[in-house]
Amino acid sequence: MVALPEARPLERGAEAGARRDSPVARIGWLLPGAVLALFAVKSLGPVRDPDTFWHLRAGEHLLSTGQFVLDDPFGAGAQRPWILNQWMPEVLLHGADAAFGLPGVAWLLCLATVLVGVCLWVACRRRSSALVTALVLAVAFVAMGGSLSPRPQLVTFGLAALSVDAWWRTLADGRARWWLVPITWLWACSHGMWFVGPGIGVLAVVGGVLDGRWRLRRASRLVLVPVLSVAVAAVTPVGPRLFLSPFQVADVTPFVSEWQATSLGDPGLWATLALLVPVAVLVRRRELRWTTALFAAVAVYLAFSHSRTVALAAVIVAPLAAAALQSLLPVPREPVARSERVATVVLPAAALALVALLAPSVASRPALGAPTLDRPLSALPAGTVVCSDEAVGGWLEWAHPTLRPTMDTRVEIRTAERIASYHRFVTGAAVWQEYPTELHCDAALLANDSRVLTLMTGASWTRTAAGDGYVLLAEPR
Predict the structure, then answer these.
(1) Strand, helix or coil for residue 112
(2) How far apart are alpha carbons 134 and 235 in whole angstroms?
(3) How far apart are CA 117 and CA 144, in angstroms?
């Protein structure tokens, strides 16, 4: 049975020398670093994720107030407390924005993408050759493509890769990696899916018992790592309320596109399934252990259940794919040479330097929002409640902090009924007027294809400006 080999015996003699002299062998050590460099360059672009802007504001507000659990200070219409459970990367994002503007945020995304790639390189290269590792990295990058944006979820991707690697090493040598406990504390300060780390640990321990790697006594000691990891999450600055934050999203997920089942047209899904192909070959050969089967099953579930978790599925399955593919090839895994380590650092570092030069010309203007309307928006009195399109709400909070938009992508601070009321408003339902009336809107900023626009102008709302695909309206007087 095969279960993520650390390495295969190296060949010796003339045959091994011939393979080392082959064209693939001569350039193979460059390939992982080249893929990571492409990670950096491909990620460069203007900020286009609506979540990024309110993350920037969150970091700024936290530094000025020190509040981790608070009523929404930015908009109108929130009904639930806002729990800053992603505060660490939010502070970093704000720091990049304060120092360098949006180009700094764009560069930080490229850096974070490279770091995620490095974590995957560590997890995959330990179990496969440089060539196989580069191939798996490239496919994983495609799988994660839809989720690589300036958001704290990148922390989850990187730390999930390190956690999978750590637990496969524990499965090989039986040693507990206690450093995962403080890592989980940092994870719990960075993203709401921190519980993935302890979950990976429990999965590995269960798999180890089913595979007969250790008896229950050893398993009970190893399971202390995920147990303590959960315990330390309770002592972040958010406190025990951290455990309640996922439940705030439960009743509003039907309104969030990324929490819907993954579309069969999603290229990330197919890239993740491609990573599972070599693992499936081992299943067909009946060479698969329980632990690998459990990890593969979880990856399949994550890939199909929610579009948001496709990238996480790819991260979890990538080391399995690398090891499985390596075991199916006649070429052994070569040790990591110094030249490969240098290339894996130097090539992405050079790419990041190039990105730093290009970012001011590429990313100074956001790809989302309505910068053309900055002047009329700035002319609105401070405290003006703006019936805002969901996609532009975060940008308003960042670009015009004196205004109070009624909707952004922070669904967890609103009830399902409030979100449904917003959708009735923008779609021009018969009761559309209830929403702006209830929230006392003084203005509105809506996409120019919103069905409610005609109804609003018919109800004496005045169009005052338009640009970047949005229309600014003033309430009837």
Answers:
(1) helix
(2) 39
(3) 11
3-42 b/e (C-beta count within 10 Å ≥ 16 → b):
bbbeebeebeeeeeeeeeeeeebeebbbbbbbbbbbbbee
Q: Exposed e or buried b for every residue in 143-162, given b needs 16+ CB within 10 A?
A: bbbbbbbbbbbbbbbbbbbb
CA–CA distance from 288 to each of 43, 326, 459, 466 (Å)?
A: 36, 14, 66, 60
Give the Cα separation of 474 and 466 in Å (integer). Answer: 12
- Residue 257 and residue 303: Cα distance in Å, rounded? 15
CA–CA separation, 209 and 242 (whole Å): 31
Measured in whole angstroms, the distance separating CA 469 from the mean position of its chain's CA atoms is 27
> Do residues 6 and 171 touch, judged by C-beta distance below 8 A?
no
Chain segment 337-376, per-residue pLDDT in tens: 899 999 999 999 999 999 999 999 999 999 999 999 999 9
- The residues facing 444 across adjacent strands are 387, 473
Amino acid of residue 291? T
Taking alpha carbons only, the member of 434, 453, 380, 405 closest to residue 54 is 405
pTM summary value: 0.92
